[in-house]
Amino acid sequence: MIRINGVAIATPKTFEVTVSDLDGNSERNANGELIRDRLAVKRKINLEWPALTQAQSSRLLSAVSDVFFTVEFPDPQLGVISRTMYVGDRTTPAYSCINGIVKWRGLKMTFIEREVLHVSNK
Predict the structure, then answer these.
(1) Looking at the chain, which terminus has fewer C-beta neighbours within 10 angstroms, N or C?
(2) How confident is the model at residue 36, as a pLDDT?
(3) CB distance 66 to 7 below 8 Å
């Protein structure tokens, strides 16, 4: 379902794509009409995995350790696409530690698109 730098990763239990407009100096004219300066359309992906072993957690976190990486994913508007992205916060709560072995409750990450799709200002 999702590939990072061409390598398939574990299927998340939650996968959510947000399509966002990035605006510049938008303002209203004397008639109250919005004059919008849309600079770009970007994707953000929220992902969450269930309980993971140390090896599984490490593999996922290592896959996104570079400053930027390529993500291939299903997009609700464009179908399967590939974008250069970076990772936001990575949350991995522990739920047990027995004899020094930590088990992780899961993993949450957000991927944010680096590149922009330029659109015309209308």
Answers:
(1) C
(2) 84
(3) no
